[in-house]
Amino acid sequence: MEDRLMTVKDLAAYLKLNERTVLKLAADGPLPAVKVGNQWRFRRAMIDAWLDDQMLGISQRYVERPPAAGDRRLLLDLASCFAPEHIIPSLAARTKTTVVEELVARAHQLGLVRDKTWFVGALIERENVMPSATGNGVAFLHTLHRNAVDIVRPFMVLGRSPEGVDFDALDDRPTHLLFLLGLKYNELHLPWLTKLSHMLARAGAVQALLGAPDASAIYDTLTAAERSLQAAAPAAAQ
């Protein structure tokens, strides 16, 4: 199906949902849509980007995906893809494009991505379809398509902007914490993204990262939050 405007009926068939569910998702806000008169219309590219975020766990989940067999052996924690040298404590860039370039330059310098030009272009393409800033001062930058060749291994790079950058956030506020996600595979096997989203949603989490004095302290703050989340999970399950 080409990238064209879709009706509720078109989208219901594409998502394999009933039309009433599509209407509810559009009316409630999570589904990217525009109302023309009294009819909802949807862009295929924006729907695909929204689904991508749903599957990665970096936005509120509305469409569930059953776990694939063997996912447990693929589980990763933050330490497997993130280290203090992956952090830029004070970004020099002040615009969306230059922030992307600065983050990618760090990833390339660390040997995490082979083709810097491809990665910058793929990230900007994703931003043009749907901004990655989720609000609350946070953005999760990633590409629409995985690239097993140019991404050396799954990774995360974090850039912090104390002044904030206009990243077209959902709440129209500046973005301060920009997580660049190097996603190598198509399979959903990176639960650290889900954990990260949950960690940053906790009260005071963003402020703690903004207040950390340097890269080492930022890293320690994130890993402490991860341990706290892991410790809380068994208690919640009881």
What would you say about this model in short?
The protein is of the alpha/beta class.
Helices and strands, in order, run as EHHEEHEHHEEEEHHH
How many H/I helices?
A: 8
- Tally of separate domains: 2
User: Which value, in Å, is the CA radius of gyration?
Assistant: 18 Å
Question: Structural class, from helix and strand content?
Answer: alpha/beta
Taking strands numbered 1, 2, ... along the chain, how are they ordered across the largest sheet? 4-7-8-6-5
Strand content: 15-25%
**Uncertain runs with pLDDT below 50, 5 residues or more?**
61-75
Q: Could you name the CATH class of the largest domain?
A: Alpha Beta
Number of strands: 8
Q: What separation lies between the terminal Cα atoms?
A: 45 Å
The name of the CATH topology of the largest domain is Mannitol-specific EII, Chain A
The percent of residues in helical segments reads 40-55%
Overall pLDDT score: 82
Largest sheet: 5 strands, mixed
- The CATH homologous superfamily of the largest domain: Mannitol-specific EII, Chain A
What global shape is seen? globular
Please name the defining characteristics of this protein.
alpha/beta, Arc Repressor Mutant, subunit A, three-stranded antiparallel beta sheet, 8 strands, globular
